[in-house]
Design brief:
heterodimer, A: 297 residues, MetI-like fold, 14 helices, globular, B: 274 residues, mainly alpha, 69% helix
Chain lengths: 297, 274
């Protein structure tokens, strides 16, 4: 046993925290989803099997919510990946110094506290004469209420685009320089070089960013919660993860349905586990674990 | 790209124009936080500092500003220290020590790195109540630090992997224990990683909203995110006050950005999750 005392000590704190706040919550989500736990029955929930899942299927708004989720994930993803790619290509085609400055600017939405970021969006979307968007478009509206989806996709997109931008930039930098020189010698224009040399080599990074962001968008609801809280009106911008959160944790209807929310979250947890296991397979896990060279613990 | 396109200045103008909305947002925050009235991005009133009175008196039934400010500072510093320490220890074990289940452990970490932790929030709420940590700063700190761990372990493992074995071998042969070796030799050698992970988790905890919003109720445990949110959540938001509070809250981040853009760019390019 002494042989393994060192790894034990080193791994203990991390393992404890991971078990407490990853493994236990995942199991708890599944367990709670099979009970009728709510504000009233919080202390003594009873087992109802798949009851919550049946009521999910029977929920008249479930179609609406699925559609919203698809809309949100689809359009935000398109913006994130497209804009990220565009920014990476453009900032890589100007002087290094300027390119870095632009990339740094795009980091701002990511590092600003989300509440401040959303406050800025709310301020810019106000009616005339205060809101910049109303000023520029010449129509006085509260644009969050008038065009909730566009604002949600853009607000998420300005944050999300930097992820792809940074990843694609590193990928472009990793392309062997000879390829660019060869293309230039062959008389290729910049456009042709990008289309025939750079983009084909970015296939894997693009696939990775798309896959990765699909999963995180599917479960993220922070900006929607802050921008519209699922409104305006009834379920206009409520996505799956937000609905789960609200059913379980917001007191909107007085009696929160913890079990039902857990059932919706359980669906996300299962998808999350499945997809992340799938990542392990395609991104060649074995190659990442070399054997330790010093066998003394 | 190694060869600049002939019209790269034009491309620069295009990409600069694309980035204008981001700049406009920051400018709006500064202007609305300082002037009496702002139309679009044009100040139409005089400088007004009275909306900054939240700095010396409590507004409505909110706590005085030093309460959320102190909480936010404690929250982000402790989270960052915990993440760096715990993640480095685990990463060192995975990178350097041999034990059964090592590759499974790394697989678990990698899987959790991709796994979207927000989907666990409902169960985390329940577990914190069971543990009696609901509505405490300690509880939120533990949760936030745990959720950052997979990323941290993964990042630090990369740094430890690139250290040379010779120095460690020498230290071990001289009879140094693994524990001393880790703190005295290995950890100082991966300082860039420690700094990068520390900065990342500091910023991410400073901005964190969903966790305190869900897991904290009483105003004495509020963080700055909740304090600011209380101004926005009102029926009629006074944007001038909200912008002043928001500017105050975001100022450390903006200053850090102005001083160390290049450094931040490296931190976020280093495989940090988005």
């Amino acid at each position: 046993m002494r042989r393994y005392s060192a790894p034990l000590v080193f791994l203990l704190p991390a393992t404890l925290l991971i078990v407490l706040f990853f493994v236990a919550p995942a199991v708890t989500t599944l367990y709670l989803s099979l009970t009728d736990i709510s504000t009233i029955t919080f202390r003594h929930p009873s087992w109802i099997g798949l009851g919550n899942y049946y009521s999910l299927l029977r929920d008249p708004f479930i179609g609406r919510i699925l559609l919203n989720t698809a809309h949100y994930v689809g359009f935000t993803l398109l913006f994130n990946v497209g804009m990220g790619l565009l920014l990476a290509l453009l900032t890589s085609s100007v002087r290094e110094r300027y390119g870095n400055q632009i990339r740094a600017v795009w980091l701002l939405p990511r590092i600003l506290p989300p509440v401040v970021y959303v406050l800025i969006w709310q301020g810019l979307s106000r009616e005339a004469p205060y809101g910049l968007i109303s000023d520029l478009l010449g129509t006085s509206r509260n644009w969050i209420t008038a065009q909730p989806w566009n604002v949600i996709v853009l607000a998420n997109g300005l944050v999300g685009a930097s992820f792809g931008m940074l990843l694609f930039t590193s990928a472009i930098r990793a392309i062997p320089q000879d390829l660019f020189f060869a293309a230039a010698v062959d008389g290729a224009t910049t456009g042709q070089t990008v289309r025939r040399v750079v983009l084909p080599l970015l296939r894997w990074p693009i696939l990775f960013v798309t896959a990765y962001q699909t999963l995180s968008l599917l479960t993220s609801f922070e900006y929607i919660l802050l921008l519209t809280n699922g409104g305006p009106g009834f379920y206009t911008t409520t996505v799956w993860s937000l609905h789960a959160y609200q059913s379980a944790l917001s007191n909107y209807f007085g009696n929160v349905q913890f079990g039902l929310g857990a059932a919706m979250a359980a669906v996300l947890v299962v998808i999350g586990i499945a997809v992340s296991l799938f990542y392990l397979r395609i991104f060649n896990f074995r190659a990442l674990v070399g054997e330790p060279k010093v066998e003394i613990n | 790209m190694p060869l600049l396109p002939p019209r790269w200045r034009l491309l620069f103008l295009v990409v600069a124009a694309l980035s204008l909305p981001v700049i406009a947002g920051i400018v709006w925050l500064f202007l609305t936080g300082s002037f009496d009235e702002v139309h679009g991005l044009v100040p139409t009133g005089p400088l007004a500092l009275k909306r900054w009175r939240f700095l010396w008196e409590s507004i409505g039934n909110r706590p005085p500003i030093h309460v959320p400010l102190l909480n936010s500072m404690v929250f982000s510093v402790v989270v960052s220290v915990v993440v760096v320490t715990v993640a480095s220890m685990a990463a060192y074990a995975i990178s350097r020590l041999s034990f059964p289940g090592r590759s499974m452990y790394l697989g678990l970490v990698l899987m959790l790195h991709a796994f979207p932790a927000v989907s666990l929030i409902i169960a985390i709420f329940y577990i914190l109540r069971l543990l009696g940590l609901f509505d405490t700063l300690t509880g939120v700190i533990l949760v936030k630090a745990s959720l950052d761990l997979p990323l941290g372990i993964w990042l630090m493992k990369g740094f430890f992997d690139s250290l040379s074995w010779e120095m460690e071998m020498a230290a071990l042969v001289d009879g140094m224990s693994r524990w001393t070796l880790f703190w005295k030799i290995a950890l100082p050698l991966v300082r860039p990683g420690v700094l990068a992970l520390g900065t990342f988790s500091l910023l991410s905890a400073w901005g964190e909203f969903i966790l305190p919003f869900t897991l904290i109720v009483s105003t004495r445990s509020w963080t700055m995110a909740l304090y600011l949110q209380s101004f926005i959540g009102e029926v009629f938001t006074d944007y001038r006050v909200a912008a002043a509070v928001g500017l105050f809250y975001a100022l450390p981040v903006i200053v850090l950005f102005l001083l160390g853009q290049r450094y931040l760019l490296n931190v976020y390019s280093g495989g940090v999750k988005g």
